[in-house]
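Q: Hi! First time doing this. I have a protein sequence and I read that you can turn it into a structure. Is that right? Here it is:
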Amino acid sequence: MLAIAGAAGGVLAAATTRVVDWFVMTDELLYERLAFSAARSGSPIPTLRGAHIPVGNDLYPLLLALVAKHDEVPAFLHRAHLLNAFLIASAAIPVFLLARDALRSRLAAYAAAALSVLVPWLVLASFLLTENAAYPAFLWGVYLVQRTVRRPSAAADLLALGGILVATAARTQFAVLLLTAPAAMLLCDAAPRTTLRRHRTFAAALALLALAVGVLAAIGDGSTVLGFYSSTTQGSLRLDAVPRAFVQHLATVALALGILPFLLGAAWLGTRSLRRDPFAVVASLAATLLALEVASFDLRFGGDIPRDRYLFYIAPLVLVAFVGALREPRAPRLSLAAPLVLLVLGFESAPLPVFSKLNVDTPAAILDDYLLRAGHGVGGARTLLVACTALLLAIFLLGRAIAGRRLVAVVLIAATAAATTAESVYAFDRLFRVDGTSGRPVTLPQGIVFDWVDRTLGTDKDVTIVPYAQIPGDYWATAGWWWDMEFWNRSVTRGAYIHNEYAEIQTTFPKLPLTFDPATGRASISPTRYVAESGRDSRFRMRGRQVSLTRDVLLIDAGARWRADWLTLGIDDDGFTFPGRTGTIRVYPYDGQTEPRVRYLALYVNAVSARVGAAFRSNAGSWSVELPPGSDTTEQVSVCVPARGFADVTVVPHGSGRVWGDLSTRSGIGLQRVRGIWLNRIALADEIGPRCSP
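A: Yes, that's right. Below is the predicted 3D structure, encoded as C-alpha cells:
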C-alpha cells in the first residue's frame, strides 16, 4: 500500500513541481503566510500579519511550516509542491483500509486505493490549498468512524472523534462527520439504548464538545467557532433550489469518475445500507450530507455552479463501493433505479460551464467544452450525457450476462483507471498550456523578478506594504502587483492602509490603519522598520533612507518612528484633482533641519481625456501648466520649508474630463469620474536648497 501511495506521489510530484507560480489568490497567499508565521514563531496558533486570526483550516499551513525553513519563496514553493504530491497521494492508505474492511479482499482494496489516486482532482496538488491535507484527512476520518461503528470500543470511539477533529482542522466543512458518526451508530444498532451503551465514550466526548462550542458561540460571534467560514452561515438560501443543486453536484462528480462507477457504487451502497453494513451506512451518510452542504454553499456564494472542488472527497467512497459492486455474484437491478434517477436529473439540468483555463473550483469542467462541441450546445450535451449513462449501463449488464463477473470487473477497473488518468493528464495539460490567473505561465520561474525585497534585506526582516493604484485604470492588475509583492517576499509581514483604501486587494487579511498628523507629518503607527510603498503614491512619501527602488516600489528604512516627507490634502486618493477645489501638497522639514531651507518638488502631471491645467503656488513662487488631452509634462516647484511646522504648495486646477473610476475599491471598476489634472507622481528631491525666508 505504501508502494502505491509512494509511486503515485512520485509521479504526481513530477508534474506539481513544474508549477513555480501562484494560481489561486488569495487562498495560496493566506496559507503561505500562515506557514511562514508558524515556521518563524514555532506556534500553532494561526497568525497573519502579526495578528491572531480565527481560521479553522490550520492543519495544512502547519504541515507547510515543516518545509518552510528560512529560505526565499521559490525554494519553499518547490518543497511545498513536492509535499503536496505525496500528501494528497497518501489518501491511498485510508482508502485501502476502508476497502479491506468493507470488501474483505486485499486485492479489491489495492484496486480501490489505486483508483483513488488517479482522479483528476489531484491537479489541486499544484497549488497551496487545503485540499492537499483535507483529501487524506477526510478519508481517515471516515475510516475511523466506520471502524468504531463496526467494532465498538472506548478506544475506537476516541480514535473516531480524533479523526473527525483532524479532518475538521483540515477543512471546516468536515464538521458534517460529527453528524455522520452518531447517525451511523443509530442506524447500525438495533436501538438507541444499544448505541448509547456501545458508544458511551463517543457520546460523552460529543456532549462535551457541543457544550464547548455552545459556550464559545455564546461569549463570542460566529467567527469564534467557524473562523473565516462564519460567512457560510449567512446569505439567503432558496430551499426549492437545493434538490436541483444536490443532483447537479453528484452528477458532476459522477461524470469525472466515468459515470458507471458512480451508478454501480451508489447502487451497492444503497443495498448494503439496507443491510446495515457499517461502511455503506457511513459512506452514504457522509456523501449525502457533504453534497447537501456543498450544494447549499454554492447556491448562496458559488454563482449557482457546481464546485466539485468541495465535494470530490466522496470520490474514493464511491470507488470502493464500485469495486464492491463488481465483486457481487449478481448484477444489480432494482438498486440501480435511485442513482440512475439522480444522474438523469443532474445531467438534464447541468450548467456545463466552460472556462478558458483550468478552474480550480471545478476541475471536472475541463470536459465541458468537449461535451458542448459534441452535443452542439447545452441541450444536446445534456441529452448526450443521459444517453451515455443509459448506454454504459446497458453495456455493463450485457457484459455481465455474456462475459461473466471477473472479466467485466477487470475491464471496468482498467477502463476507469485509464479514463481518470487521461482526465488528470488533460487537467495538467490545461494548467501548463494556458496562462494562469496571474497572467503568466505557471511553469515560468518568477522568484528572480518579484523576490527582490528578500534578496535586498533577507528573509528575517519585517516590511510593511502600503498598497496603492500601481497600474493606473486597472484594478486587477494593481491587485496582482501587491499579491506578488507579498507572496514572493517572506519579509513582507504587515499591511498598512490609509482610510482603508485598496484594502479589498486582501479582503480578509488583518490591516493596520495608517494616518498622518497634518501638523507634524507623524504617522499613527510604526509597526516595522522598513516600508514598501509605490513610487507613484500621490498621498504621501515616507521619510527615511531609500534602500531600493525596484519595479516602481520604494523600499524605505523609515526607522523606529514613522514620519512623512510630504502629504497631499484635498486631492483624490490616486492623485486626481477635484474640479473647482484647491488641493495641497504639504512639505515637512527634514530630520535635523535647524533653519528654513528651499526644497524642490518634481510634479509629473497628466491630462487623461480633456484639456486641463493647474496653477501651483508656494511661498517661493508660482507656476502653471496647460495640457491638451492625453499629454503630460513635468513641473519643478520650489518651496521654503521652515525648521518647524510645514510649508504648502497649493494646486488650483481648471478644466475637467472623464477618467476611470476610483480603483481604491472594486466598486470603481468600469465606472468613470469627472476630474481635473492628474498628479501621477510627486517626488521631493534629496538636494537641500539654500537658506530662505518662509
